[in-house]
Amino acid sequence: MLWGVSFDATPISGVVVEFVKIARHFHDRGYEVHLDLGYDIKADKNRFFRPYHDEARLLPPWVRLSRIPALDSIDGYDASLVTAVLQEVVEKGDLRLMPEVERITDAICERLLTLWEEIGVTRVLVENGTLPENIMVTRALQRAITVYGARHGLGRFVLWRDHDLMWQSEPGNGKYGSPPYPHVPPLLDSGHLRYLALHERARELTQAWAPHVRHIDVLPNAFPCRVAEVTPANASFRAAHGIPAGARLIARTTRIIPQKRIDRDIRLVAALAPTMDVRLFVAGDTGENPGEYRRLTALAAGLGVSERIVFGGWLTPDTEATGVAPGGGWSVRDLLAHADLVSFLTSYDYESYGNPVGEAIAAGVPYLTSDYELYSTVYGDKGFRAPVLRDDLPTPTFVSEVAHLLNDDTLRAATAEHNHRLGEQHFGRTTAAELLDRLVLTPMGARTRLSVVLPVYNEAANLPAVLDSLYGQRDLDGGRLDPELYEIVLVDNNSTDDTVALAKRYAAEHPDLAVHVVHEPEQGVSCARRTGMLFAAERSTGRPATAPAAGERFYLVSADADCKVDPRWLSTLLSAMDGSGAAIGVCDYYYREEHFAGRPRLWDAIERTLRCRAVAFSLFGGFPDGKGFAVEREAHDRVGGIEIFYQLEHGRFVNHLSDDWDFGIKVSALGGSRVYVPGSRVEINPRRVDHALDEVIEGKAYGSHGTIVMRDIRPEADDCGGEAAPVRDLTEEEALRAWQFSIKDFLPKNLLLPLLLDPELLATAPVREFFGDELADALRRRIAEIVDEMRIVDFTPIHAYKTPSFRLYFEFADELFARLRAAAGDDIGFPPPLPDCLADIPRERFREFVHYYCEDRESGEAHDYFGNGGVF
């Protein structure tokens, strides 16, 4: 059962139409749909307590009108109180009415709960609930959601979709007060709510206003992309409204109120009339604002175009079929089938989205528009073509552009085709369907404990083996790991091969394993991993509280599509995370020695690195690597998920590769512990070394000069005519350079960074045993000095920890290598030579110049010296 409410308080508006579109997805999956049109919410619509009459005929037959009951029985609750609260409390901050607000809020909440219990609500859709026309209803909804959700053990059962937040709806008149709107009910950060914004700009503004809310998704208005056509059922539309068959017809679907600026359309028709037979059809309720209707008809008469203006009344927003609507009368699509242009000359700051523009694009009709505040955000910046009014009234240039479009059938058809093609891409129904299916309508399994996030880009060759290894996971006793405990989230990063088709086929052939395919349009493994983890985290919070796994910790697990996982990878990781209570679980990564047969020097460098890694990870828990790690969902959400950083490479912004390390640093900086799980093993694909061997030797496998980016390391992508890079061993000189870059990259990140994040580790017995008391105490003193000197308050991004960890390396290199030799073997050797610029610095000034060297961000020499991004 889906119950929804619109704060628009009109029988038909863009908000109501969007409710119907969203509700359709629920209806198609068997939900019964109820809607409260909000008459008893907004005072300025003059519909308070008005009984429903013929509103149902304007809506699909599967929508039942079901308003909050008995609001007229609440003593003192009426339109005059709503107006007074808006003017006194919200706008002026006078709180004397707040006791009355609280009393009525409680009474509305009780009636809401009664209704929801009576009809058996399981989903709620709120449209525009944060528009503070009536804070009593907003607060009552929030309270009812909290009580009802807890009472029935529901997860995120509410979609709260704001079309017109304060900054989008008439911000200039100040009727909601001033930012940060202290007397508007703040967004409720609840496990029962999922907020939806219309576009990225709206989400940014919402998050700035309500930074405490973490679950905000973008759900743009969607439009069925079907060209509106004249059919036998609607062929008489023009004749029924007195519009000649040969006249050019401009359509305007809108409420007839001053803010919609229909006067601009009338003046446009008057300017076009001398050169063509043009008509304007205005679809809207002429009775909503009688004064505005009289003003417009007087304007038309004064301009001599009364016979050219048709006020056609409400049209059914029939988004599913053309012809006469089920309730009788004409539909918007009937109008669009006969229209030559659709107009949307609204005022600058009134309309936040512009549904008529989207409807015109989807129906294959060209449009004209004013340059309203968010036009570029929603349509203009996407390449749609249309005449745009940038002045208060139509100018001769604008009129000429409109006339040219009306008179040129070829141009009009080409414009419509261009816009329709873009509309399918940006506003097709699949946009909403995919988001709702992912986050709401395809629930997570009640027993699911882990989501394995697998970013993929053209991995058709490797994917079957990877999916087989995930499907064949074993439990700790060797039996098959219960497939209900985990799911796979495959994030396609714009693959052009058969990756997606293969994944979907695999899912169909293995129905006992949940496999979800998500798309991430921004190229980069970091972006794909972030999207997959956000998707999994969001879905996991929607599980009902009564689900068997709801009371247990939930984990997001990262994997790579070219690496194989061992059979007990997940079960061992799950056991370690549950047993330790750690926020992050770090897997063991290894290469198979047989892949490097005949290449002893290369294998020696790799094997020494792995030995050092085992020592450091055992001491400090290690840091996550995208090839395999787990993070507890609450820890993931607490830091805002994986953050994407950008750097410049050859004059273009590129996303930073070290998202996994940065993420681990952020979690650790907020107190999250890490656990190393050596039994949870991941085999690294040797192509990572083979294909970039020259870069490995030079210490710039993933970039240089401080820029760390993902390279395409697949053999088929290199410059050797499509053939794999030649396999060879290293010379002695190359092996030495490769090892030196490997150990220089390893040591600051794995032995020094953990201490910078938590210097108290130097007081623990295992760490002191490794370093020895003298070195441990020296490091502790020096870290305190550096932290004080640099005023380091957090180590969130990777570049914030590089400088201090590099400095500690140079200052303590001899001692650190001595401890590594003792723990991992004498073949670890000694520190590589210093950079030339430091080699001749007097010892008494060494620390000073190390600081300058490590801070030299302009040249990036320090980054290059340390290998910049890892080797093995």
TrEMBL record:
Query: Where on the tree of life does the source sit, at the highest rank?
Result: Bacteria
Q: Which SUPFAM superfamilies match?
A: Nucleotide-diphospho-sugar transferases (SSF53448), UDP-Glycosyltransferase/glycogen phosphorylase (SSF53756)
Keywords of the record, alphabetical order, are: Transferase
Claim: Metal-binding is one of the keywords in the record? no
The Glycosyltransferase 2-like domain covers 451-617
Q: List the CDD domains.
A: GT4_PimA-like (cd03801)
Q: Where is the signal peptide?
A: none
Q: What is this protein called?
A: Glycosyltransferase
Species source reads: Streptomyces mordarskii
Q: What is the lineage of its organism?
A: Bacteria, Bacillati, Actinomycetota, Actinomycetes, Kitasatosporales
